[in-house]
Amino acid sequence: MTTTAPAPAPAAVRVVPWALTAALVATAIAYPLASGSFRDTVSWGIVLLGSALSVAHAGLSRGARTGVGVLVLVALVSIAFESVGVATGFPYGSYSYSDVLGPTLLGVPFLVPLAWLMMAWPSWLLGEVLARPVRASRRRPARIVWAAAVFAAWDVVLDPQLVQAGYWTWADPTPGLPGIDTVPLTNLAGWLLAGLVLMTLLDLLVERTARAPRTGPGAPLFALAWMTLGGALAHVGWLDLPGSAAWGAGLGAAVLVVLAVQHRRAGRP
């Protein structure tokens, strides 16, 4: 019996995500070296490239319906959570956005849903990878929990940086994680809750719309790793944020250890 090898994916399916990732990394490197209004421009560049990477990879790898679905779903969930958060303080704690971020919808600057989009799809992909060793009957909840945890952990690094940039301010930033005195623990709890809701919906979306992946998750996962571990380096080397640098390095290293253990176990006879 002969089998037919799957047709190779078009070059664009492989090249476009990596080209966006390269542009994202280059822009992220520029952030700690910039200052003033140019740094604000770089922030917009990072978020626009990161969100474009998420939509492009989801669409090219899993199909156009999945790409559009990721865009719409993340936009709706992010605006819902953030507008309630600004109005009531739930679930993150009381905070307010500055005027630097420009136009808003329901009190939420347009940049914020794009930042969610940048973070959401790579977090789901990493959750999928981390959940692969789990037995099939438990794989979905494991994937959702892992993805939500990655989503929240990413914000542990990102939030102190953006508070420092003056994009938003917390009414009461204490108590916070050790070494981070500008962001309250309620924010982490809120991101975990939001992550569980969002990743559950993303998981259902992928199940109902996606075809078999046409390319691997390498580009978004590399972007996630760079933004976390590279961000930690920028925090300690240029931005004077040693606490979030330590947390970013520690959380990133923990994920790498889990992946290494899984790889070692998978290779055993």
From TrEMBL:
**Listed InterPro entries:** CruF-like (IPR007354)
Its keywords, alphabetically, are:
Membrane, Transmembrane, Transmembrane helix
Q: Per the record's keyword annotation, is Membrane included, yes or no?
A: yes
In which organism is this protein found? Answer: Blastococcus carthaginiensis
For whether the record's keyword set contains Membrane, the answer is yes
The record's section on Pfam families has: Caroten_synth (PF04240)
Q: PANTHER family from the entry?
A: SLL0814 PROTEIN
| Chain ranges passing through the membrane | 12-35, 41-60, 67-90, 110-131, 143-168, 188-206, 218-238, 244-261
Supply the name of the protein: Carotenoid biosynthesis protein
